[in-house]
Specification:
4 domains, elongated, about 800 residues, 24 helices, alpha+beta, 6-stranded mixed barrel, 23 strands
């Protein structure tokens, strides 16, 4: 019997090549989309899942104002952890970002991602050690642990314990070689223990948030107790002491400084990737919203594909009605017919999954490039998900067509009467409406997403970054060296003079910040009766704002013509001025970090972090005014002309390697391109939506074609009779397309609220956003109706051209 079923299936496959192709293609596209989403989901969910202590290890986050969350902490807490926190099993201060520096072994060297941490680092991230062990790998400040990949690159072997390498002018002993079992929030290529000296230097400083902190609890349920103890310590040693020093009560001090007490947040490592409230680890945060969008849209497309399959199958069933009738006459039961059609669905789904895997394999490099990942098709979890998709598809896509066909009434079928119950007609029409609804959502969504990305990419940013190089710059200094700040400044000035001599260079300047990634320094200041303003510290060189074409609203720029501009003057931006509630700021003094600084200009707001981010309050001062800001310089900006930019860049590189930094490779980017990456993820979402929109429309058209074919095939005698009685073609076309226009309208109306609500939620990610108008919905409706009429009328027109005798000869 099974062999007979397969022979019948192959026969109909050959007889209905188009329908068979559309069936397989529609399902395979839907399944491929879901496979892509599963790969992405598995990758993001796998971060830290290998870590047995992911529920007990917490990242300490500091809430320092109403809006600022820092994944950085102060040093003095450490001594209290050791004696007053019985709930803590261990803790680890660490740099939660990477130093990308040179490690050298004899004459061989390379640039590696390095984390500096306390010796307990491998208790928080228990990597697998193939040489040495996690307890002794960082036992003192002369130790370094390296990954297996680093060992192979640097030494060419894994047995490297006891070898001595040079890093940042120090000789370090390799005491461990590790591999990382899976995706991790920290994936350093080497780990050092040089942080303790810095912790000791800051052990009495309750105001400097400089270090990442991990806390491992004996019992995860004690989290709130630990938070309460930390907040109490911070309150006593910050607000109480500082208020007393100013002769204020705690309440008065808090009111003066923004009215917000320090709050501690402990986030479990398991939530670090997708649910953290701030960037806290070097590997960054995942985009949970984008992940859910990917999964949801993929499920929608699979639903659309299954509905399309059902529509195609039922449309084709009319051609097999007599076959079913004959089989029933010779003794086949309903269950036999159901089994046969379920087997056919099984085979179609199998072909579809195989084709979808081919599609995924061929498209995976582009998908990886799109997500900036390295996904592969493997893993037990992936196979289980794929099996689940397989089973669900067979059950959902196979049962309805099988039951539908098995319920044909034998005598009516053999007479040529293929009429079906109203319930079946309603169900098919309902599925068509679902297709229209999904297609409506994607058409409207694609339009709105495109408009939003167009809006932020063309928005006036407040600065011009064209033809301006942003060159990576490393400050080579020793904090303990006497006069190191003046040496940093002198070195920068020397570089500036040398680059200025190069042909094609128009201007050179820098600031302690980077366009597109912001800066890492904030300080609170107060002005008269305003609340404490937590502003971004923008250390700049003369000419930096002018070079970037950042405008002054009132007052003037900082200038070397005024000696005071390197002593006690500053600029504020418009946002800071609004928070100060001062109408005439020029010449006014503010209390900034226990210093009196005079405002000489107001800078027009510009988007430092990205057009999707809110502009924060900013204060600007020259490096000599606040000399410690020199340490934050990581970029040097050079404006070049457009005559021969390649040669100018080549000359800068030659000078750089010769006189500035011969150890590290010359690395640069154009400011405008660097800045564009701040909303690159949203551009990717736009491209994804556009691609999926095309796929959805194609699948929806397949289904519409099937239903139109099915419906018109059932009405061929009616059409023939109407033609015989003299009905004109346009009348027939109107009659045949009328119901599809109604379904189109119903599907459109069904999708309106979900489309508006979900897309409005997506737009909430942007500070600067478009308003959803009526136009996307009008355009969506016109596009959907036009495509519907195109398919239906073309099919209906074919029906009006047939020979009427073919359908009337049996009457």
């Amino acid at each position: 019997m099974l062999l007979n079923y397969i022979k019948i299936f192959l026969y109909h496959l050959k007889q209905n090549k188009l329908f068979s192709f559309l069936n397989v293609l529609g399902l395979s596209i839907g399944i491929a989309g879901l496979i892509f989403a599963i790969l992405y989901w598995n990758d993001e969910q796998s971060y830290n899942s290998w870590n047995p202590d992911k529920d007990k290890v917490f990242q300490s986050i500091s809430k320092v104002s109403r809006t600022d969350y820092w994944a950085s902490n102060i040093s003095p807490l450490e001594e209290y952890f050791k004696k007053d926190f019985k709930e803590i099993e261990s803790h680890c201060y660490f740099e939660n970002w990477y130093f990308e520096e040179i490690i050298q072994y004899k004459k061989k060297k390379g640039i590696f991602k390095i984390t500096d941490a306390q010796k307990t680092f491998f208790e928080m991230f228990p990597f697998k050690f193939i040489k040495g062990n996690g307890k002794t790998a960082l036992k003192d400040n002369s130790s370094i642990a390296v990954s297996l990949e680093t060992a192979m690159k640097l030494f060419g072997r894994e047995d490297v314990l006891g070898e001595i390498v040079t890093y940042s002018g120090r000789k370090l002993i390799v005491r461990g070689v590790y591999t990382i079992p899976g995706k991790s929030s920290m994936q350093p290529e080497a780990v050092t223990n040089l942080i303790d000296n810095r912790l000791t230097a800051e052990k009495d400083n309750w105001g400097n948030f400089s270090f990442g902190l991990l806390i491992k609890l004996k019992d995860a349920n004690d989290k709130e107790k630990v938070i309460a103890k930390i907040e109490q310590l911070m309150h006593q040693n910050r607000e109480v002491k500082w208020a007393k020093a100013e002769g204020l009560s705690v309440e008065e001090y808090l009111k003066k400084n923004g009215g917000v007490s320090y709050k501690s947040i402990l986030e479990p490592l398991k939530d670090a990737r997708l649910h953290s409230i701030t960037e806290g680890f070097a590997e960054g945060r995942g985009n949970y919203q984008f992940l859910m969008i990917m999964v949801s849209l993929s499920i929608l497309i699979l639903i659309l594909s299954i509905v399309n399959y059902i529509n195609l199958t039922t449309a084709n069933a009319i051609k097999r009605a007599k076959e079913v009738g004959v089989r029933k006459i010779i003794g086949a039961s309903k269950s036999n017919v159901v089994k046969q059609f379920l087997l056919e669905t099984f085979l179609i789904t199998t072909f579809s999954i195989l084709l979808s895997l081919v599609i995924v394999e061929l498209s995976l490099p582009y998908y990886n490039d799109f997500l900036d990942k390295n996904l592969i098709i493997s893993g037990n979890q992936f196979c289980l998900y794929l099996l689940l998709v397989f089973v669900v598809t067979i059950l959902v896509a196979g049962i309805f067509p099988a039951v539908y066909v098995s319920n044909f009434e034998t005598l009516k079928v053999l007479k040529g009467n293929f009429g079906r119950s109203k319930r079946g007609v309603l169900l098919r029409n309902g599925m068509l409406i679902i297709q229209f609804s999904i297609a409506t959502f994607f058409i409207i969504g694609s339009y709105i997403v495109n408009e939003q990305i167009k809006y932020i990419s063309t928005k006036d940013l407040g600065f011009k970054g064209e033809q301006i190089l942003s060159i990576d710059y490393k400050n080579n200094y020793d904090w303990n060296e006497e006069g190191y700040k003046s040496k940093i400044y002198n070195r920068y000035n020397l570089i500036k003079q040398e680059i200025s001599k190069i042909k094609g260079v128009e201007q050179i300047a820098t600031g302690a910040f980077s366009f597109g990634s912001g800066n890492g320094s904030t300080t609170g200041f107060s002005y008269h009766n305003s609340e404490n303003i937590q502003s971004r510290n923008m250390g700049i060189d003369f000419g930096m704002l002018e070079m970037m074409q950042i405008k002054i609203k009132e007052g003037r720029f900082l200038s070397e013509k005024f000696a005071s501009d390197t002593i006690n003057t500053m600029l504020v931006n418009e946002t800071a001025l609004k928070m100060m509630n001062e109408k005439n700021p020029i010449g006014k003094e503010i209390d900034w970090n226990d210093r009196k600084l005079k405002i000489v200009g107001v800078v027009k707001d510009f988007n430092l972090f990205g057009p999707q981010e809110k502009i924060p309050p900013m204060v600007f001062f020259h490096f000599k005014t606040v000399d410690w800001m020199l340490q934050n310089i990581s970029k040097i900006h050079v404006k070049i002309n457009s005559d021969n930019p390649q040669q100018t860049i080549a000359d800068i590189e030659k000078l750089w390697i010769k006189k500035v930094d011969s150890e590290n490779p010359f690395s640069y980017d154009f400011v405008d391109k660097q800045y564009a990456r701040t909303y690159e993820n949203y551009v990717k979402q736009k491209n994804l939506f556009s691609l999926l929109n095309l796929i959805v429309i194609l699948i929806a058209l397949f289904g519409l074609f099937a239903l139109a074919s099915f419906s018109i095939e059932r009405r061929m005698k009616e059409i023939s009779i109407r033609k015989t009685l003299g009905a004109e073609t346009n009348v027939l076309l109107r009659e045949l397309s009328k119901q599809y226009i109604i379904f189109c309208v119903i599907g459109f109306l069904t999708a309106l609220f979900p489309a508006y609500y979900l897309l409005n939620k997506w737009l909430e990610n942007f500070v600067y956003r478009i308003d959803i108008s009526i136009y996307p919905f009008l355009i969506g409706f016109i596009a959907l109706l036009s495509l519907t009429l195109l398919v239906v009328l073309s099919k209906a027109y074919q029906a009006t051209r047939v020979d009427v005798l073919k359908y009337l000869k049996y009457e």
